[in-house]
Write the structure tokens for this entry.
Amino acid sequence: MASVSSAHLVLFIAAILFSAALAGTLTESANSLGASIEDAADADATRTATAFQIVSDDDAPSAVYDADTETLTVLVKNTGDTTIPSQPDDVTLLVDGAYQTDTQTTALDDDRWRPGTVLRVRTNVTLAPDTETRVVVDASGHRDYFVFTTPA
């Protein structure tokens, strides 16, 4: 009978050790999940406060694309509540679906792309005359697009 009690005691101790290890693992996982949710919420809050609009005039295509220099210039206004990073590495520019690697950005009216200010985004790209061109600007998780017809 003493051997049955000893076996039960060993099994009880093993169950306690297993439960403690499981609880530690679950606590660690819950902490990691909580930190991930907090990071995602912060990123969503930044994206929500980030807003901009392309303000280039599609009725003036020669102001958007200079065929002689093959320069595309897009004006983008910060309409959100936060300052948006405006370095070329922070702004993604797609022209007809092609990622532009040689992009220059200049914040007009200020040294940073603050709310209410305009960012000039330029790139050199060859576009066919008198064709519809789609431009997408992406920064800080927000994007806007612009469609214009290149000058003939």
